[in-house]
Amino acid sequence: MPRRLRGAAYQAFYRLPHSMRRRIVRFIVPKYLVGAVCIVRDAEAADPGRLLLLRQPPGRGWGLPAGLLKKAEQPAVGAARELREESGVDIDPADLTPAVPNAIVHTKGWVDTVFLATVPASTNPLVVDGGEVLEADWFPLDDLPPLTPSTAYLLGIYGIGPHAAQQTP
């Protein structure tokens, strides 16, 4: 856009009432859903380790404990809440470690904040409700079950799973 035209557009925009400017910005600016994801490893497993995965309806692949954040909820708090709700594993949000990179932008309009946790599987029995989650289990990192596409993508960024060599942060 030529400089003069852009300047005139900004002048016209700033003459609008504040409430109208805010509506225009909210309409134009991309919107994302923000979620929290936990990559949970078994503290007692021998190398290469085990990963907690969930099978959710419709059951076409396994995924990670994850969900959308509630309004004004801190990401670590949301990650711990989702982990507890979906698997029965109760962890203090302070014990979650932000993954690097911590935020993953998906192509379908959502952003995941990713956290790492290590818990002993023997003292954390897996409990699922049968509605939101059909099944939860620990899987060896070198023998993962079929994953949902978004889980395979996300794990690949962290060097885990079938897409590990293909992803870059």
Automatic annotation (TrEMBL):
InterPro entries reported for this sequence: NUDIX_hydrolase-like_dom_sf, NUDIX_hydrolase_CS, NUDIX_hydrolase_dom
CDD domains in alphabetical order: NUDIX_Hydrolase (cd02883)
Cofactor: Mg(2+)
Keywords annotated in UniProt: Hydrolase
Domain Nudix hydrolase: 30-161
Transmembrane residue ranges: none
SUPFAM superfamilies reported for this sequence: Nudix
GO molecular function: hydrolase activity
Gene3D superfamilies on file: Nucleoside Triphosphate Pyrophosphohydrolase
Protein name per the record: NUDIX hydrolase
Annotated source species: Couchioplanes caeruleus subsp. caeruleus
